[in-house]
Write a structure and sequence with these properties.
single chain; 261 residues; 74% helix; 0% strand
Length: 261
Amino acid sequence: MTDILAKDLDDLKYAKTLLENPGLAARITNFLGTPIEKGFALLPGNWSKVVSFSTQKALQVAVNSAILTIRTKRAGDDPANGLHKIMVAGSGAVGGFCGLPALPLELPVSTTIMMRSIADIARSEEHVLSDPQVKIACIEVFSLGGPGKDDDAVETGYFAIRSGLAKSVTDAAQYLAKNGLIEKSSPALVKLIAQISSRFGIQVSEKMAAQAIPVIGAAGGAVINTLFMDHFQRMARGHFIVLRLEKKYGRDVIKQKYFVL
């Protein structure tokens, strides 16, 4: 097996820590001091339809307004994580005050901010944002929810999720590389967003359940959205560390090392 530099192995260990521990639900539960399942019982009967519609819309808006139009910046600079958290906390305050009815309006805003933060993290890990594969990898982050309490690690681990999305990711990246711009109605992008939104919707549902708990309110909604943002920033950091190392050593080498760490 190819030898990996000690620094790169440390980076891979750090990435695995981010990607595999813990899920958003656990972090929100720690903040609330009560299981978020109590919040699900307080949501209206149509909540799953609202979440499904809102996640698809949010990803479509974020992809077209953030990723596909983002300007290339110098690779390697530190990302503005703190600024992005402040911005998304503001939209979370609205969601915390208005609840589920505000989701179709609030989620596209917060998701677009998160998408820009994810791209910023990709750049800080030495990825070039003009690369179609990097742009698609930014979208892919929203499928990386981290393990939940009922998850089977074999089925929902980081590499399992990537394998499940591999063909859609490749098709979307190839379309973007060939055409220079990917239309929101293109089959490649529609399929990818549909697959990712089904997983992203799990995290959004957990966020809404937490915000449904009466003690949350506007201030609590801002904190929940900050945790939401921080969660995907952690996923993005881990994801782009792994991709950076795969580019250097090959995916098979990194995948094997990842599983034995």
